[in-house]
Design brief:
409 residues, alpha/beta, eight-stranded parallel barrel
């Protein structure tokens, strides 16, 4: 009689990663509107962007009455240097409990079990899991001993995971997981995976590239089945990441390599309808996706800078409207550029709340200047020309006007 495979139990407030196609954690491309759009198009789970533990510690949690979101914010660090900015708060993390409940994984950037636990406790009541980033190769992460730097100190990484399992996972009854990269040899990767699986985690994601590799380099899948087998033996869900282009391909790769789930990253960044299966119609036209994204971004008062960045990913560079779109300075402008007339009134409200009305005013000035140039081309004179003309006239006395008046006096 064969025994059933070992399986780490999933806490009651957690979620099993098995059988899922999920949105990968991406800086800027993993903010709330992007996550909600991915869920709309069929993502089973969404990872938020890596959020540094120290940036969360000291934040104030508020329920936003306008957006119905939970916001973690803190006073801008510039406040001490510039008193005029002392009351300006910076939103660190925003989540939507009504639409992300049971499907949001908070990814944390950390190099310490103590700060990791302190930060994770803040958000634990509102997420389905905490995931430790041990794979980011960017200097802003590795320079602080976070991200891929943790792969060089496996014992320390294991201590962080153990602390999170004991002090956060067990207390709040959610899962703890980790995302890693491949090491230089299969033997090194195997040893690392075995060590991490022994900490009590419920899931392990492997990005199928080594730390020096960049996204343009093809993902390496030679070690994937070995990693999946170790995770399966330890009862830990194994998630693959790297060059997964859509839902159908994700499901095929899950079967091919024996992993439990798959992440979509850059393909979802360019078009989140990649979570739709071919049976559901597959990828949608970019304009349809952008319209849905804009509606969500407005609904949650998304930071303008993030919205502008995301639109730069969603709108094809060869599209006629691309250059105009990336030059916009507020929601009202972009809605007009994209001809989203039904969203303009809402855009104006959001611009006012986010203090972007100045951008709209500048647009009005630019439009006036453009009209002025049009009038000039039609034979009229600009206000500048009229001003120059009046300033270049000779004084009245030089034109012998007023002399008779002086003589009469």
């Amino acid at each position: 009689m064969t025994s059933s495979p070992k399986r780490v139990s999933i806490p009651k407030n957690g979620v099993d990663y098995r059988g899922k196609v999920v949105l990968a954690p991406m800086v800027r491309s993993g903010e709330l509107p992007s996550r909600l759009l991915a869920l709309k198009y069929g993502a089973d789970l969404v990872w938020g962007p890596e959020t540094i533990d120290k940036s969360m510690i000291g934040t104030t949690k508020r329920i936003n009455p306008v957006t119905s979101t939970i916001d973690y914010s803190r006073v801008s660090s510039n406040g001490g240097r510039n008193p005029s900015l002392s009351l300006k708060e910076n939103n660190i993390y925003r989540l939507c409990p009504a639409r992300e409940h049971g499907r949001l994984i908070f990814q944390i950037g950390t190099s310490s079990p103590f700060t990791a636990v302190e930060a994770a406790k803040l958000v634990a009541p509102h997420v389905a899991g905490i995931d430790v980033n041990a794979g980011c190769p960017k200097p802003f992460s590795t320079s602080g001993g976070m991200g891929a730097a943790l792969l060089k100190t496996p014992d320390h990484l294991a201590s962080i995971l153990s602390a999170l399992v004991t002090e956060v996972g067990n207390v709040f009854e959610i899962g703890i997981s980790v995302k890693i990269r491949l090491l230089e040899t299969a033997e090194e990767t195997e040893a690392l995976v075995r060590k991490l699986c022994a900490t009590g985690i419920t899931g392990l994601t492997v990005h199928c590239r080594t730390t020096p590799m960049r996204p343009r380099e093809r993902a390496i899948r030679d070690q994937l089945r070995m990693i999946a087998d170790i995770c399966k033996a330890e009862g830990v869900a194994c998630v693959m990441n790297g060059d997964v282009r859509n839902r159908d391909e994700a499901l095929q790769l899950i079967q091919e390599f024996g992993v439990d789930a798959a992440m979509i990253a850059t393909a979802a960044e360019a078009n989140p309808s990649s979570f739709r299966s071919n049976e559901e119609g597959g990828l949608l036209p970019w304009r349809q996706v952008v319209q849905q994204y804009m509606k969500i971004a407005l609904d949650v008062d998304n930071k303008w800078g993030n919205t502008k960045f995301t639109l730069g990913q969603l709108i094809p560079g060869k599209a006629e409207v691309y250059r105009e779109a990336i030059g916009c300075k507020c929601y009202t402008q972009i809605c007009k550029a994209l001809e989203l007339d039904d969203l303009i009134d809402q855009a104006k409200d959001v611009d006012r709340r986010l203090d972007l009305s100045q951008g709209y005013d500048q647009a009005a000035v630019s439009n006036a200047m453009a009209m002025n140039k049009t009038a000039q081309a039609a034979g009229g004179r600009t206000s500048a020309e009229r001003r120059f003309s009046s300033e270049s006239r000779h004084p009245l006395s030089e034109r012998r006007v007023g002399m008779s008046t002086a003589m009469a006096v």
